[in-house]
């Protein structure tokens, strides 16, 4: 269960600070609460399976496989709900991202948002493709995300195989 939460957090990092033009947040905790709400709504809506999505962390999988499509859409789904991605054009809204990032009081989270703005600003890709590109970018540039992946993968290895393909 814990590893799933970690993975969810990682996928959430994609959208952590991707937020909504209409909605006003007063502080970090309101922002994160709403993000988690939206994340669970989106996971349900997209029927996202954390075990399947976790395979996107493995280099030996074919990331273009259709079964991963929904995983790539998770971040954008949350981002559209929060205003960090334009619902129609599917472009990231970096102004909104910055606005939300300013609410981060926690140094670790603030560092993450800085890193995303420094390395991962993407004006070209849209919708789910933008989500996937952003995830790859964060994984490449964030020591925190890399740590989470390492933990996730070692937990995965140490999970007793219940026989056959885990669902
Ligand atoms: C965040 O803001 C809301 C509304 O102003 C307030 O009720 C809540 O206590 C604040 N939370 C924190 C952790 O500051
Ligand atoms: C955040 O980044 C700054 C500068 O890059 C670094 O000095 C600091 O230790 C980082 N803080 C955390 C909590 O990672």
Automatic annotation (TrEMBL):
UniProt cross-references to InterPro entries, sorted A to Z: PBP/GOBP, PBP_GOBP_sf
Xref: SUPFAM superfamilies: Insect pheromone/odorant-binding proteins
Signal peptide: 1-21
GO molecular function, one term: odorant binding
Keywords of this entry: Signal
KW rRNA-binding (keyword) present: no
Protein name: Odorant-binding protein 14
């Amino acid at each position: 269960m814990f590893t799933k939460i970690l993975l969810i957090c990682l996928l959430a990092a994609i959208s952590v600070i991707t937020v909504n033009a209409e909605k006003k947040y007063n502080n970090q905790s309101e922002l994160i609460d709403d993000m988690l709400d939206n994340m669970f709504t989106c996971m349900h809506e997209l029927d996202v399976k954390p075990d399947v999505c976790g395979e996107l962390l493995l280099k030996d999988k074919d990331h273009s496989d259709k079964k991963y499509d929904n995983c790539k859409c998770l971040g954008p789904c949350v981002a559209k709900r929060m205003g960090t991605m334009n619902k129609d054009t599917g472009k990231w809204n970096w102004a909104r991202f910055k606005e939300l990032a300013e609410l981060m009081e926690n140094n670790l989270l603030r560092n993450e948002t800085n890193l995303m703005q420094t390395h991962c600003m993407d004006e070209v890709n849209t919708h789910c493709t933008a989500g996937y590109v952003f995830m790859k970018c964060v994984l490449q540039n964030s020591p925190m995300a890399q740590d989470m992946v390492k933990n996730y993968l070692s937990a995965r290895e140490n999970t007793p195989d219940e026989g056959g393909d885990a669902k």
